[in-house]
Amino acid sequence: MTDLRNKFLESVDKLFERRQFQSLKELFDTMEPVDIAEILAEKAAPERAFLFRLLPKDLAVDVFEFMEGSEREEMLAGFTDTEVASIIEAMSDDDRTALFDELPAQTVTKLLSHLSAEERKLANTLLNYPADSAGHIMTPEFIDLKEGMTVAQAIDRIRATAARKETIYTSFVLGPDRRLKGTVSLEDLILAAPETPLTALVDGNPVFVATSTDQEEAAKTMSRYDLQTLPVVDKEERLVGILTFDDILDIVQEEATEDFERMAGIRPVEEGYLDAGVVMLARKRLTWLLVCIVTQLFSSTILERYTFALESMVALAFFIPLLIDTGGNTGTQAATLVIRGLTVGEIGMSDLRGVLFKESLSGLLLGSVLAALASFRAWTMGTGFGVALTVAISVVGVVMLGNLVGALLPFIAKKFRIDPAVMSGPFITTVVDILGLLLYFEVARRVLGLG
Amino acid sequence: MTDLRNKFLESVDKLFERRQFQSLKELFDTMEPVDIAEILAEKAAPERAFLFRLLPKDLAVDVFEFMEGSEREEMLAGFTDTEVASIIEAMSDDDRTALFDELPAQTVTKLLSHLSAEERKLANTLLNYPADSAGHIMTPEFIDLKEGMTVAQAIDRIRATAARKETIYTSFVLGPDRRLKGTVSLEDLILAAPETPLTALVDGNPVFVATSTDQEEAAKTMSRYDLQTLPVVDKEERLVGILTFDDILDIVQEEATEDFERMAGIRPVEEGYLDAGVVMLARKRLTWLLVCIVTQLFSSTILERYTFALESMVALAFFIPLLIDTGGNTGTQAATLVIRGLTVGEIGMSDLRGVLFKESLSGLLLGSVLAALASFRAWTMGTGFGVALTVAISVVGVVMLGNLVGALLPFIAKKFRIDPAVMSGPFITTVVDILGLLLYFEVARRVLGLG
Q1: Which domains can be identified in chain A, with CATH numbers?
Q2: Of B31, B282, B425, the CB nearest to A365
Q3: Which of A158, A307, A430 sits opposite B314 (nearest CB)?
Q4: In A, which residues are within 8 Å of B279 by CB distance?
Q5: Which positions ≥6 away from B277 have C-beta within 8 Å?
Q6: Residue from the list B225, B288, B369 with its beta carbon closest to the beta carbon of A34
Q7: φ and ψ at residue A277, rounded to 5 degrees
C-alpha cells in the first residue's frame, strides 16, 4: 500500500510541475480519499490549497474529512466564505462534530454561521451532548419508516431519501410519537415480495442505547451483538440518531490507547504524540510519577531503619535492585493479564478467588526458578550461604507478592467503579517494591541473626 | 444490559421448573443469540443440552457460534452424528474455521467427515492458510456478478443467491478468469434504473489484500479505508474470499490484547486468562523475567564494585529503590507513548530525532520536579548536603535516561521489523536500572570525593 502511495506521490509531483492539471484531476479521481489526504499533507500550504481546489466537490469533502486537525484549520483559514460553507454543509454530521471539537470555540461559532438554520440546529444539538457520550458522535442521518407501510412503499422511501443518509442497509421503524418500534434490513426488504406488510419483516426487539450512554459502552454493545448500526434514543425513547461501523472502530482504538497510557501511569492524552506539546505531555505524566516517588520515600525510611543490617552485611545491598525489579515485573505482568481480562469482560468480580489462587501458584513456580538463579549468583559472588539463602527466600516471596498485589489492585479499582487500568504498572511496582524491601530485610534479620 | 440478562435468566429458570417448554421456546425467540449463549453457559451440561435442543435450528447455530470453546466441545460430544452434521453444515465458513482451530485435530477430522464434499473442500482450504493470514479467516460466501449484466440482472442474481452469503451489501464483479474487476454496492444498484449496465456503477479500483496478507495488516487496511468488506485474492489475483466487519473488530481487540501482553513482558496468550493453565501462563511470563533477572545480575556486580562507596556512606543505599524505580517508570511511560504512536502509525521512522528531542526536554522538566522532592527528603533525613546533591543530580539524569532509552528501543525494534511492543516495560526498566546505578555511583564518587 505504501509503495502505491509513493508512486501516486511521484505522479502528482510530475503532473504538477508540467502544469497538466486536467490529468491531475483524473488521477485524483482514481485514488482513495485517505490517500489523497496523505499526499496533500506532505505539500506546503499554498500548493496543498491549490491541489485541493482541483478536486470535485464530493471528493474534496471526503478528503477534508481525512485531513489532520492543524491542516484543516490552515485550509479553512485560506478559503473564501463560500468555499468554507460548501465544505461544512456537505460534511456528514458526525464528522462535522469531530471537526468542531478540535477547533477553537471562536472558529466554531464562525463556521456554524455558514450552515443552514436546520443544519445549525443539528450541529448544536450534537455538540451539546457530553464529549464521551453516544449522543455526541451519533448521526441523525438515518432512514425512518412507518409501521403501516408495505415493502414496496418502504423501498420507495429508501430510494427517495437515501442520498443524505449514513446507511441505507438498516432502516428504523418509528411509531407516531417517533418512538423506535423496530429495525428492518435492506436485505430482508429486497428478498421479500413487494406487497408484504413491513411489520412481517421488522425486528421488534432491537438493541439500542441512550444519548447519555458512554461511547465505550456503546462500542461494547455493537461489538457484543455484531451490529453494524446502533440506534440512539432520547429520554422519551424517541429515536434521535444512530452510530455506525466506522464510529465504533475509532472508539475501540482510542480506548485501547487510553488504557495503554493509564497502565503506564499517564493520564489520557487527547492529541497524537507528535501534536502534543512537551509541557502538556510532562503534566500528563507527572501525577503518577509524583505519587510513586512520594510512596518511594518510604523505601528510604525502611532502608534507614535497617542501617544496622546494611552496615554489618553490605552484600545485602547488592541484591536490592534485582529484588525490587523482579517484584515490579511480576506485578506488572499479573496486573496486565487481570486488567485486560476485566476490560474485555472475560474476568468478572466473582472470579477474584480463582484469580488469586492461580497467581499464588504461578508465583510459586516462577519465583522458584528465578530464586535458584539469583541465589546461585549470590553464592558465586562469595556472599556466603546466609545471603544466598536470604536472596532465595526473598525472590520467591517478592514474586508471589507481585502477583497478588498486581492481581488484587485492579479488582479493587473495579469494585469502586474506577477503570481497572488506573492501577498502573508504576504504582503496582512501587507498592511491591516497598513490601518487598520489608520482606527482604526481615528475612535477612532472621536468617543472618542480625540486629 | 446485565439487568435484562438476569431477568431472562430468572424467567428461563421458572419456565424450566414448571416444564413450560413451549413458552420457553417463545421466550428464546425474542432474545439475542449472544444472550442465550451466556444463559446456557451458567447451566450444568445436561440442562444446557436440553435447553439447546429447544432452539429452532437457525437460532441454535447462531447460539452455538457464541459459545465458549470448552462448552462447544462438551455439546458436540453429547450430540448424535445427525445433530452434529446439521450444526456444522449450517455454520458460516469463517466461524466454522474458528471452531476447528480450537478443537483437537482428531475431533476436527471427525467433524470434517460430517460435511458435504464441497463444504469439506472449502473448510480444508481455509484451514490450510497460515493461522494469522487473511486467507485463514476469510469467507468464500460472497456474491459474484458478471461484467456484462444490467442492474436488473444483478439484483435478480443477488436475490437468488443471497440466502447463504455473508453480505449482500457489496457484490464483486469478476472477469471470465474469476479475476476481481471491481465492486458494486447494493445501495447503488437499488438507486439506479433497472436497465443501467452494471459497468456504469462499478468501482473499478477496489482495495484488496492477498490470502497471505497478515490479518493485522488486513484489519488496518479496512480501518484505513473505512471498508465494511475487504476482497481477498489469490496469487493469480482471482477473488477467493472476503473479510467482513465482524472479523476486523475481533482482530483489533486481539491485537490490542497481544500488545498489552508484550509490553508487560508476556508472550501472547491464545486463550482467555481463566481458560489458560497455570503452567502455560507461567511459561509465557518466564522468558522476559529470565532475561530481566540475568541482566539484573549485572546490577549486583556494579554494586559490588562500589562496596567502598556503600561502606563509607551507607546512606547512599537508602535511595537506590527510589532512583531505579523512577527511571523505570519514566522509561515505561516514554516507551508506551512511542510504541502506541508507532503501532497506530502516527509516529514514523523519520520522526526519531524529533521524538528524542521531545523526550530530553520533558525528561529535564519532570526530572527537575522529582529531584527537588527527593533531595529535600534526603536533606530532612540528615544525610548531609553531599548525598542530597548526589540524589538530585542522579534523579534528573535517570529520568532523562529513562525517557531516551524508552523512546529509542521501540524505534530499534521497528527498524529490525520486530513489533515495537516487544520492547516491554520490564526490559526497559532493567536497562534503565543498570545505567542509572552506574550514573548514581559515579556522581556520588565525584560529589562526595569517595574512592
Answers
A1: 2-130 (1.25.60.10), 144-259 (3.10.580.10), 278-448 (1.10.357.20)
A2: B282
A3: A307
A4: 365
A5: none
A6: B225
A7: -75, 155
Q: What is the mean pLDDT of chain B?
A: 85
Distance between CA atoms of A150 and A155, rounded to whole angstroms? 9
Q: Residue B280, class by beta-carbon neighbours within 10 Å (0-12 exposed, 13-18 middle, 19+ buried)?
A: middle
Q: Which of A186, A256, A293 is facing B322, going by the closest CB pair?
A: A293
Contacts of A303 in chain B (CB under 8 A): 317-318, 320-321
| Contact (CB, 8 A) for A65 and A33 | yes
| Three-state SS at B320 | helix
A144-146, strands of its sheet edge to edge: A144-146, A170-174, A180-185
Confidence band (pLDDT; 50, 70, 90) for B363?
very high
Give the whole-number percent of chain B exceeding pLDDT 90: 27
Helix (H, G, I), strand (E, B) or coil at B272: coil
A32·B433 Cβ contact <8 A = no
The two beta strands, B229-233 and B239-244, are antiparallel
Q: Which residue would you say has higher pLDDT here, A412 or A18? A: A412
A111-122 average pLDDT score: 72
Judged against a pLDDT cut of 70, whether residue A278 lies above it is answered with: yes
Contact between A429 and A321 (Cβ < 8 Å): no
% of chain A at pLDDT higher than 70: 98
Nearest CA in chain B to A340: B257
Cell of B447: 560529589
**Is residue A6 pLDDT above 80, yes or no?**
no
Q: Does the structure show a pLDDT above 90 at B183?
A: yes
How much is the pTM? 0.71
Distance in angstroms (rounded) separating the CA atoms of residues A197 and A318: 81
pLDDT of the residue at A2: 52
DSSP A269: P
Q: What φ, ψ does residue A385 adopt, rounded to 5°?
A: -60, -40
Residue B371 has pLDDT above 90, yes or no: yes
| Cβ count within 10 A of residue A119 | 16
Beta bridge partners of A233: A210, A239
- In eight-state DSSP terms, residue B196 is S
pLDDT exceeds 90 at position B173: yes
Q: DSSP letters along A316-346, please?
A: HHHTHHHHHHHHHHHHHHHHHHHHHHHHTTS
Interchain proximity A260–B381, CB inside 8 Å: no
Poorest-confidence range of A106-115, A295-304, A348-357, B261-270? A106-115
In angstroms, rounded to a whole number, what is the distance separating the alpha carbons of residues A395 and A377?
Answer: 13
**Cα A450 to Cα A434: distance, rounded to the nearest angstrom:** 20
- Residue A437 banded pLDDT, cuts 50, 70, 90: very high
Query: What average pLDDT does range B176-185 have in this prediction?
Result: 90
B205 pLDDT band, cuts 50/70/90, is confident
Stretch B123-132: mean pLDDT = 76
Identity of residue B360: S
Distance from CA of B260 to the nearest CA of A (A): 7
- What does the alpha-carbon distance between residue B446 and residue A154 come to, in Å, rounded to a whole number? 84
Residues A74, A45 contacting (CB under 8 angstroms):
yes
> For B392, left (φ over 0), alpha (ψ -120 to 50), or beta?
alpha
Decide if A322 contacts B299 (C-beta within 8 A).
Answer: yes
Q: What is the Cα–Cα distance from A94 to B17, expressed in whole angstroms?
A: 49
List of residues 6+ apart from A53 with CB closer than 8 A: none
pLDDT score at A366: 93
Record: contact B286-A366, CB cut-off 8 A = yes
